[in-house]
Amino acid sequence: MTDELLALHDAARKQAEAKARRAARKAARAAIPPPERDHAYDHLGLDELRTLRGALGDEETRVAYWTRIIRQRLEAVRAGGASREPVADLTGVLHQADRAIDRLGAIDVPPVDDLSPLPDLAELWARQVDAADAAAVALLEADLAEAVEELDDYRAEIGRRAETVTRELIARYREEPLLALQTLPTDPLHRTSIA
Questions:
Q1: Residue 10 lies in a domain
Q2: Number of C-alpha atoms within 13 angstroms, CB side, residue 62?
Q3: Has residue 144 been placed in a domain?
Q4: CB 102 within 8 A of CB 96
């Protein structure tokens, strides 16, 4: 009987702890102030903000794709594959990214505003070096590693900007809730929205 009482007591304690954690999370969410207007976006209309958010999303997709293949090339070089054809090393990654390639084929997004331009990733990915030339292999590895860092920083900045634009949209919808209705399709049978 003592074991049963201990088990019941332990279960009750765990339930109380879980309830306290849920209450703390709820309180933390309530403490986050709602998004407020950012005057840096005053010059943009609602459609322009949505377009900007879409462009940032497209750019993030492009950067995620390049990050993936440059990382794979870096891993191949580190594994001693510096002289092999990059396409052979990346077949798996490219096969998995077919859908991203299809989407990217239609995207022509210039660098977003004042973000620094990325290095020539296609040249870096395809660069061939003699595996016997230790200096050339080391330079390729260093260039690939630097490109991965730049891609990670670039992607993080895109994410920050996309979040800022989203917060601006939310702030505008909070000020004028009817604006949110503009994102609904005009055809009730059409289920997607451009939010």
A1: no
A2: 20
A3: yes
A4: no
